[in-house]
Amino acid sequence: MKRVILMALMTTVIGLLPGPALAAEKFFTLVGTTSTDNSGLYEKILPLFTARTGIKVRVVSVGTGRAINIAKNGDADVLLVHHKTSEEKFVAEGYGLKRYDVMYNDFIIVGPENDPANILGLKSVVDGLAQIAATKSFFVSRGDDSGTHKKELSIWKMTGIDAVKASGTWYREAGAGMGATLNTASAMPAYTFSDRGTWLKFENRGGLRLMTESDPLLLNPYGVILINPKRHPHVKAKMGQAFIDWITSPEGQAAIKAYRINGRQAFFPNAKK
Amino acid sequence: MTAPLDDTSILPLELTDVSFAAGGNRLIKDVTLRFEPGLKTVMIGPNGAGKSLFLRLCHGLLQPTQGSIRWQQETGAGRHQAMVFQRPVMLRRSVAANIDYALKLRQISRRNRGDIIDRVLHQTGLRRLADQPARVLSIGEQQKLALARAWALEPQVLFLDEPTASLDPAAIHSVEEIIAAIHDAGTRIIMTTHDLGQARRIADEVLFINRGRILEAAPADRFFNAPENDLAQAFLRGELLWWNKGQDNRKQGMPPKGENQ
Amino acid sequence: MTDFSDAFAAAIGLVLGLDTSLTEIVGLSLRVSLTAVAIAAFIGLPVGAAIALFRFPGRFFFVVATNALMGMPPVVVGLIVYLLLSRAGPFGVFGLLFTPTAMIVAQVLLVTPIIAALTRQVIEDLWIEYEEQMRSLGAGPGRAVPALLWDGRFTLITAILAGFGRASAEVGAVMIVGGNIDHVTRVMTTSIALEVSKGNLALALGLGMILLVLSASINAAAYLIQHNTKRWHA
């Protein structure tokens, strides 16, 4: 009996230890969006930063709304999302120090290969969405308050159609990340609004095809922000700023530009020189 | 060997006007008794008379609702008693470990425990089963183990509640021998039984209980040859029936007219 | 529709390649869940026994609470722990969020009610059988607890295994408090969720099969131990 208790205690103690390697590690926490992470960009470029500075980056990937929430709470050191108005509000309210341009990618509309709304080839994404609504073709929205979701809603607004009102009929809100939403769209099948990075990497396309792209409205700019150390003194300001400096530097920007998914460039660096 | 009876003795045990009630009914009524050291007392009576309750009151597992139960020692009398129940209760460990557990509770040191366990297992014929799981033993063997465990504690008083009620004749004989041996070693025996033959074999004194009341207390010889109480007589004849309330005009053995069967 | 054979092939590929990230993920999963279960048992066994044996004010509330908490959705527990450990929360100063420790804390909260509730039932039943004899030997409920726990060990091991099952299978809590950070807080279940979100269904299913095998192995080992000690259950 005593032996059992002793073993249990030992397991507990060993389990709770942070681990010798981790304790000495230099790292900071970056909170960003699942779409960026799922595109594979971080896997490619972060090791370059670590090689240059010896600082490891711990990436927490969630939806934009939650990322901002985590950043406000001070549970991360750097915020990297793609919703400019939210980012500017974040800085204005004192949660973040300064917003830097980093890169942009773009959004696309994908849909069933038989194209029930007949939008293939349309240059205007506003017209495309209007036609989807008019034909009441199935459309899956992320519905999760993410940057992608907010962008989608802003374009719906331009069509003058209240798509959310039709929620549950032809307009379906998944309340999920990009990958899960694509899975749903693939299975239904339905149209959906996706970022190009996730789409390029997505392996469960089923009968989905690219429908609409290149409309300037579909550009998706990213901003990187250091969480304000005045508000959260524990923030790793030096390491966070080192990352921001690197990713906006020519070296970091080149790394972003060089990243390819299936041969295509996915992100376009646009830091101010 | 039990310590010689002296200032550390917990006997005599005095019961004064003891009653026990539950659910509004008095199940033990007005018992006044004194247990002196030395004898083997057997309590008999029909089922439901209160034999088991009586033992539990004496041993302290229940508290009387009226009256007092006093040992010679004010506190700590529990250490010098033990009880064996109708169905033996063993822990899921070996035969030897069960006795070891009881000794550990009494804070007997590790050095002494081994010897005591060996001795009582030998005395009860269970030595070869020492490392077996206690619960795979037959019920007779388990009851002998219960006795061995009690004996290991060297109690001054051993209570036994119908200890052989679940056993076959060979086991009954074994158990009675062990009880006799424990008594010879100096332990006061207080037990209940529904087996009149067993009572005759074992008792030095007999207590006859019916419906919570002790109707007769006498040396065994006198009780079995010439019981004074009429219900005791009926019981010995095997005639004590539930509706028989005692001396009255109703014919023995016939239900009164008009009462429900 | 994803072929199960693709998933199977993916699983075999991962295992045979001794994929280092796989071993890392499996190692972390085991470390988190086993530690959580150990702590949960350390708390749950005595608490369950205490509720079984003692009458105290509010006992009824405890019984109902432990039974109800057994069904607590992991994502809710994750949310609560996040709010507690966040820098904006009461325990933020420890900086435990997004670490394996936070994951262990969340899983302890998930598993302890299971172990406590099942322990209570086991000990209650045992005490009904043992009470008189134990009291006669001088052991009231307090002194009897270790003996009762040991006596109920076979059923209690099943309870602990049930707790481990719950811990190793859940994704909601560890995702929220751990953040699924690569090489730091990524475990089997969060990996599976990630691969699903990427549309890599075959890989996700393959990981799921590995998780199943792991879980089945632990249960099989426990069963064998119980089987070989059957005589002591009686």
Which structural traits does this protein have?
heterotrimer, A: 273 residues, alpha/beta, D-Maltodextrin-Binding Protein, domain 2, 10-stranded mixed sheet, 42% helix, globular, C: 234 residues, mainly alpha, MetI-like fold
Task: Give a written overview of the molecule.
With 273 residues, chain A is an alpha/beta fold. Chain A has 12 helices and 12 strands. Chain A has 2 domains: 28-105 and 220-269, Periplasmic binding protein-like II (D-Maltodextrin-Binding Protein, domain 2); 106-218, 3-Layer(aba) Sandwich (D-Maltodextrin-Binding Protein, domain 2). In chain A, strands 1, 2, 3, 4, 5, 6, 7, 8, 9 and 12 form a 10-stranded mixed beta sheet that branches. A two-stranded antiparallel sheet of chain A has the order 10-11. In chain A, helix 7 packs across helix 8. The longest helix of chain A is centred in the N-terminal third of the chain and has 15 residues, at 2-16. The radius of gyration of chain A is 21 Å and the shape is globular. The model of chain A has no long low-confidence stretch (mean pLDDT 89). Chain B has 261 residues and is an alpha/beta fold. Chain B has a domain at 13-90 and 157-236: Rossmann fold (3-Layer(aba) Sandwich). Chain B has helices at residues 51-59, 95-105, 110-123, 139-152, 169-184, 196-202, 220-225, 230-236; strands at residues 13-22, 25-35, 40-44, 66-70, 81-84, 157-161, 188-192, 205-210, 213-219. A 6-stranded mixed beta sheet of chain B has the order 5-6-7-3-8-9, with helices on both faces. In chain B, strands 2-1-4 form a 3-stranded antiparallel beta sheet, with helices on one face. In chain B, helix 3 (110-123) crosses helix 4 (139-152). The longest helix of chain B is centred in the last third of the chain and has 16 residues, at 169-184. With 234 residues, chain C is mainly alpha-helical. Helix content of chain C is 77%, strand content 0%. Chain C has helices spanning 4-16, 20-53, 59-69, 74-85, 100-137, 141-151, 153-169, 172-178, 188-197, 201-228. Chain C is globular and about 65 Å long. Chains in contact: A-C, B-C. Chain A binds chain C through residues 1, 8-9, 11-12, 14-16, 18, 22, 29, 34, 38, 58-62, 70, 72-75, 176-180, 182-183, 186, 198, 201-205, 232, 234, and chain C through 2, 31-32, 34-36, 38-39, 41-42, 86-89, 92, 95, 97-101, 104, 146, 150, 179-182, 184, 196-201.
